[in-house]
Design goal:
509 residues; mainly alpha; 5-stranded parallel β-sheet; 6% strand
Amino acid sequence: MATLAADRDARVRAAVAARPAELPEDLLRELLTDTDPKVRAAACKHGPPHDLHSALLGDPATRKRVVCFLELDPGTAGQLAADPDEEVRAAVASHPALPAELRDLLARDVSAEVRGKVFVRADTPPELRDEIHAWLTAGAGRAEEDWTAADEEDVFCEITLTFLELESYPWVADDPAPHVHSPYVGLRRTAAGSGRLPAPRLREMLADEDPAVRFAALRAMPDLDLATAEDIDRRHRPLKGSPHRPADHVDFPPGTLRRFAADPDARMRVLALRDPELPAELLDRLAADEDHSVRRAAAADPRLSPRTLLHLLADGTESVAGAAAASPALPVGVMSAVLDLTAGRRPAERGTVVLMCGLPGSGKTTYALGLERRGYTRLSVDEEVWERIGRDPAELDPEEYDRLRADAERELWCELERLLEDREPVVVDNSFWSRAARDRYKALIERHGCRWELVHFKASPDTLRSRLAARNSGARSANRVTVSDALLERYTAGFEEPVGEGERVFLQG
């Protein structure tokens, strides 16, 4: 560990600093005083030694991260509450030792995020919480009227309201009864899922107007009868992009699941696929269902025959064909043809941005080039770096390469903003290894009223090594840069695989 913490590549040191396991104090001190700001910022998660607090507060890279570890005095609290960085103000707004007068001041901050942090505090008076929520709701309303022309802070009001519904409220969980009829979904949801409410109160919450509250009550309900569980699932309408539903927490017997196969509601027919002994004829019937969501779910079932999968590849609904293409049951020899088929089916769509995600050698650029041929503007960090230096970036010092790559990413970000304003179709040919980077691009795209697609190319380590070995032995170019086994291991260690982010997955090899 000490060797990796002293690695010349700052990305490696940052990966060490970001590990969830506790670090020895001497190693933690080294990382907290590292020359690279990203390393120092990552190391702050471990609870910095008290004698370093002052230096970390003076460091822009670590100030917001060290706030939660401070023994907050009124003077420091006042300075942080007036900090120009809203993330610092948000951090101090969450601190349990924040004086009441500063809490009330931050409740009227210009930032939606800061006000949201005050909303979730246990000591926030109900009337102040009402005021915060009303302000956020007004901003969100303005954003909904015209998303493309909305003020950025109004957009963040809508985002903050969503997070408040999903937020954890420990003080509500400790004493849930007073919040069963709260006007705020997040508080009712926490109360329902606290495990401290008696069955009659939980049964009452099963009829809540909000599906998330009903969902939480169902999960906490002891010995829930199957008829009630089925009724709750039928009435459940999930959040956009969320795959979760009440049925995830109910073990319906095979007879019930097979009954769902003929249900008039497509959402219920999908549940039939959860039967581990589902007859082949029912599976094939679901694969030919009139509703595309049922066909899509069936296409992802590993029990589906290759013959039926090949039929679904020609489905008129793209998401069905995509699910069939991603199936592990698809013959390996068909994979390349499948990619060509799904890539060539539809023309470039205005207002669409495709975000490529995956490790080196997974096939991202090949797919992106296919999109480019269909009319998408391709933004490639690798090509931008190559144009600047005219040679393989593997020949550069890691720090120099990081600097060039960061400059290229900033330039392409500005280019993407220009293309979004014109609603041009774009494919961002980048690796998008971190969820934070993916979320940042998604927010930018949505802020311009455009649509994103996250495409994750996933390959086994052996497949990646084999492809990269062949690539490394050939001529170098912007899209054929050298990636050694050691570098691949570093990239793999730092890769945050997208799960539940609305991604479309292509399995390779």
